[in-house]
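Preliminary data (for renewal application), iron/sulfur cluster complex.
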Amino acid sequence: MPNDPEIIRAAIRKAHELGADVAGAVAAKRLVDCPSAVAEKHPGSQENRGTCIVLGLSHDPEHPELDLWEPGRGTPGDRILGNTGKNLARWLQEEYGVRARLIPYRIEDGGIYLKDAACMAGIGRMGRNNLVLVPGYGPKVRFRAVWADLECPEEPSPEGDIPCAGCEGYCTRACPMDAFPTGRFSRERCLARMNADRTSGRRRIDHCRACELACPAGG
Ligand code: SF4
Ligand code: SF4
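Predicted structure:
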């Protein structure tokens, strides 16, 4: 029987087979007081044991339909990620007898701060636009995660070049809400735009992606 780190590596390979473009793992206990949890004063994980396997799906602007949000249904891209996560959890149970489950998307439903988790799992680095810049994809990636009853090796978050170093800040200039007034992201200003979108009466909503689509990272 393989040990837990071997199963985690196998699960990351399996996640790619099941359709994830990127995947990585982080110990759940590291997320409890991750930066967003501290900032929001809300625990960043309901679990302080086990492993969160983070899955990412590229949202190419050529397929804007992946990101169209509907009340009660979320987006098609998130449904694809959710199915990938459920299939991965089932595979872990069947292949290794490991308890695993898809983590809810929303933090208030027991979710985790997915962008923090993606960075801590080594998938990418946080950009000035408050999005994870993923090598090869830039900020055009959405995330979900699976919790698995596996011991994750403690690894420090990856160091490396700051992805925005030297960039003129196309993201902040593109924002229609001036949500980076001091250079730092203002959640309130961005949320005001999202809330206006959601009450617009449109059936399927194409949320603002200006700070994402303006970013040259990832090619
Ligand atoms: S999503 Fe739109 S409103 Fe929100 S920060 Fe980005 S550009 Fe600004
Ligand atoms: S546009 Fe430039 S500053 Fe903004 S996130 Fe992308 S690389 Fe960073």
